[in-house]
């Protein structure tokens, strides 16, 4: 009907618009529906021939103007983002960096009072709208979209369990090196994936890498670090994660302004840090504790000499390592028997409950959903989409900067007080965030009935304009949007896409000195600053404590011989909690509304604070062998020749003299 060669893009768009508007006023309801269906089919065929980036003669104009019918817009609402790609990078100092790269998320509208399935928000990660989307490029169905999103999380959970064998058999260093190789391979596969099957394969490989790195990385850093710097070096892991998130958000903003298959650049770039990790680890030594456990004592002593400064008592540390590994080798049974021993050994079981609980509450404070929501909050506050693309980096920047406070405090204040203070302030930020969303739902913009909208022929626009009486009802209709200069003078108009209305004040051809704003999926509110402030407080509180401390503590509280097994179990808990939060958030938002969801996160954060206060001892200033004694009873310590001075650590938050725990 409308062939690309027979009609220009501008004429094509204008013809579609006129027939749609004219059809509403001149034809019966059944005839209008039939015509709309035919136009939807025609437009879909036009896009099939023209806008896919991987095909020649790509149509940039249709993508630029976001020309969509109701069917096209409904299809766009089912687009999903590839979940954040974690890329572990081991630097020369042995710290871990995880770089996150992401694509756009589907553009659903938001119901603040009573969210509906098709109206619930999914403004995750970056609110930019790439004209060359992954879903359109590879023709992904809903099932395939869900499979690609969940593939990494599922395989990461499985590989975190398998890494218990890897870190004990292959070694800490080689396991981390393998994770870097998997990341590089996954980046190449996903970046050049010609089909959805290859894309899924790349996601599965990347999940294997993340599971291995999340277990082996902290263990490797903890076992090679001196006691005085162990907490600082393990905490660098979280700082590098924050840096990776910040860099990837800036990258997403930059790539949103260029042409071409943007998603390929975003996922393909992960191959470079993966390769860098492999190269860097070729020059790194193996963990001296792992070498000692394998009977390679001279190698362990040589590595320890490389890792310690002049003047350190290497022989005393080596003696502690040999005694600990000998005791561990006597207790270790290997394979599944080690797992049975974990459940039957009281002090290990206590440490495992503590480590798993800390990572559980870290995920259930809702950090991912809060950061993912930042783009939506900036838009509700009145910032245009083009600006929100960059402002979404603000919470990532806050998280990165405040994570340095954790580095400064971890060896000065200790793990326990930093984590407790962070949890308390994070709960305060979540309460402000929940209250802010509640205010937004009660004070968002309303329609001004005195405003009369007209089309290009001067006729009064009745479609959408007279159908709804509130902004919320307007944006919940996929065919309508909200046009405004201020929250008090809005009007509901037929939508022509994400950037402008089909007719009326917000049509791109309208000439006016006023700056009109257009939205399809949210209602602006003057109270959005409360939620923005709460988000800033929460992210700032998370950075120094809730972010790095659970990882730091988990890397040091387990005995050598079950460190790999226990770390695998706790990481499985962490990945599982991440999956639960990610896949239940929309259901919670629909059931108890968005404010209620963040109130729930506030409650779980307070529970985590109580959990920390009751169970967590201070580990600052203690060697890994000394930390093990904290979870034993006084009778066990006396039987092994250890002092009972450690009982007071939890109350004083001061490290005991080193000799008080020495055998």
TrEMBL record:
<feature type="transmembrane region" description="Helical">
    <location>
        <begin position="560"/>
        <end position="586"/>
    </location>
</feature>
<dbReference type="GO" id="GO:0022857">
    <property type="term" value="F:transmembrane transporter activity"/>
</dbReference>
<feature type="transmembrane region" description="Helical">
    <location>
        <begin position="233"/>
        <end position="259"/>
    </location>
</feature>
<feature type="transmembrane region" description="Helical">
    <location>
        <begin position="388"/>
        <end position="410"/>
    </location>
</feature>
<dbReference type="InterPro" id="IPR005829">
    <property type="entry name" value="Sugar_transporter_CS"/>
</dbReference>
<comment type="similarity">
    <text>Belongs to the major facilitator superfamily. Sugar transporter (TC 2.A.1.1) family.</text>
</comment>
<keyword id="KW-0472">Membrane</keyword>
<feature type="transmembrane region" description="Helical">
    <location>
        <begin position="265"/>
        <end position="284"/>
    </location>
</feature>
<feature type="transmembrane region" description="Helical">
    <location>
        <begin position="200"/>
        <end position="221"/>
    </location>
</feature>
<feature type="domain" description="Major facilitator superfamily (MFS) profile">
    <location>
        <begin position="79"/>
        <end position="620"/>
    </location>
</feature>
<feature type="transmembrane region" description="Helical">
    <location>
        <begin position="598"/>
        <end position="616"/>
    </location>
</feature>
<keyword id="KW-0812">Transmembrane</keyword>
<feature type="transmembrane region" description="Helical">
    <location>
        <begin position="351"/>
        <end position="376"/>
    </location>
</feature>
<feature type="transmembrane region" description="Helical">
    <location>
        <begin position="528"/>
        <end position="548"/>
    </location>
</feature>
<feature type="transmembrane region" description="Helical">
    <location>
        <begin position="417"/>
        <end position="440"/>
    </location>
</feature>
<dbReference type="InterPro" id="IPR005828">
    <property type="entry name" value="MFS_sugar_transport-like"/>
</dbReference>
<dbReference type="InterPro" id="IPR036259">
    <property type="entry name" value="MFS_trans_sf"/>
</dbReference>
<dbReference type="Pfam" id="PF00083">
    <property type="entry name" value="Sugar_tr"/>
</dbReference>
<protein>
    <submittedName>
        <fullName>Proton myo-inositol cotransporter</fullName>
    </submittedName>
</protein>
<dbReference type="InterPro" id="IPR020846">
    <property type="entry name" value="MFS_dom"/>
</dbReference>
<dbReference type="InterPro" id="IPR003663">
    <property type="entry name" value="Sugar/inositol_transpt"/>
</dbReference>
<keyword id="KW-1133">Transmembrane helix</keyword>
<dbReference type="GO" id="GO:0016020">
    <property type="term" value="C:membrane"/>
</dbReference>
<dbReference type="InterPro" id="IPR050814">
    <property type="entry name" value="Myo-inositol_Transporter"/>
</dbReference>
<keyword id="KW-0813">Transport</keyword>
<feature type="transmembrane region" description="Helical">
    <location>
        <begin position="174"/>
        <end position="194"/>
    </location>
</feature>
